[in-house]
Amino acid sequence: MKFLRNLLAHPLTRGLDLDDPNTTALRQRIIEAKPFLRKIYEGWYAWLAEQIPAGDGGVLELGSGGGFFKDYVPGLITSEIFSVPGIGCVLDGQRLPFTDASLKAIAMTNVLHHLPNVRRFFAESSRCLRPGGVVAMIEPWVTPWSKIVYTKLHHEPFEPHTPAWEFPSTGPLSGANDALPWVALHRDRAIFEREFPDLKIERAEPILPLRYLLSGGVAMRTLLPGTAYGPIGWLENLWPISRGGMFARLLLRRV
Fold first, then answer.
1. Residues near 200 by Cβ (< 8 Å), separated by ≥ 6?
2. Which of 23, 181, 190, 207 has the fewest CB atoms found within 10 Å of its own CB?
3. Using one digit for the tens of pLDDT, what is the confidence trace for 87-138?
4. In a 10 Å sphere around its CB, with 0-12 CB exposed, 13-18 middle and 19+ buried, how is residue 144 labelled?
5. Among candidates 223, 236, 246, 240, which has minimal Cα distance to 148?
6. Which of 167, 80, 174 is nearest to 116 (CA)?
7. Is the four-CA dihedral 108, 111, 112, 115 of positive or negative sign?
8. Which residues, 6 or more positions from 241, have their beta carbon under 8 angstroms from its beta carbon?
9. Is pLDDT above 80 for 22?
10. Residue (of 216, 214, 211, 215) closest to 239 by Cα position
């Protein structure tokens, strides 16, 4: 499988250091150059934007890096763990520099599983969100199919059997556990609800058994043109999504 990963590796990111800010800056170029992948992000961002409640409060995006969520949310507070062009502020999701109840939404795409201590993030979210505010996320998810993909084809650690919600930090992006969102919000849901009673899990919906894999993501070459996005989506609708989703739409609400 290592040979296959190397063969399919995207030429712009092959061999680059994941913790180098320049690697993150390349993501937007890659997404723009891959129409199939851009359609996936457009769908993700549209869903995230729909979850933002009306009323007062700021909207923070963690891990804005190479994305374009700011095109969907006027006044979005963009952020990243390190300095990259076009980012509003540099911050750590485990220590948010916002006053209590000052935000109405925190949005992120593929960020939670990179946080070495998600308990700190959940505690900070509960503190910074106003009542009715939300955390809206797109994150990797554990299903029978995704176990195969993340174990055999993906470069990041995937440890659904870990007893802990933490992992040693090797760097801002190289450290990860792709299974961590599922561990905290599904496998250990009773623990989450006991420790964070102010954050209600409203949605944990598996999605995309095929499309992200076939897009190549940001690390691998695309396997299909943008015109194939719709037909592949039709095929996905025939799949038992609870057994095949590689990602999940996750929504937490501050009560």
1. 252, 253, 254, 255
2. 190
3. 999 999 999 999 999 999 999 999 999 999 999 999 999 999 999 999 999 9
4. exposed
5. 246
6. 167
7. negative
8. 206, 207, 209
9. yes
10. 211
Q: Which of 47, 199, 45 is nearest to 118 (CA)?
A: 199
pLDDT beyond 60 at 11: no
Angle at CA 41, nearest 5°, toward 78 and 211?
Answer: 150
Residue pair 12/26 in contact by the 8 Å Cβ criterion: yes
Instruction: Please state, in angstroms and as integers, the Cα–Cα distance from residue 92 to each residue in 19, 38, 74, 80, following that order.
Output: 14, 26, 22, 8
Which pLDDT score is estimated for 13? 58
Whole-number Å distance between alpha carbons of 178 and 162: 11
pLDDT for residue 162 is more than 70: yes
Place of tokens 């691998």: 220
User: Can you tell me which residue has the tokens 């729909």?
Assistant: 50
Surface-to-core class of residue 178, CB atoms within 10 Å of its CB (0-12 exposed, 13-18 middle, 19+ buried)? buried
Q: Map tokens 């979005």 to a residue.
A: 76
Mean pLDDT of the chain: 91
Q: 81: Cβ–Cβ under 8 A, 6 or more apart, which residues? A: 63, 90, 91, 92, 93, 172, 173
- Bridge pairing between strands 89-90 and 77-80: parallel
| Amino acid at position 11, single letter | P
Backbone angles phi, psi at 65, to 5 degrees: 25, -110
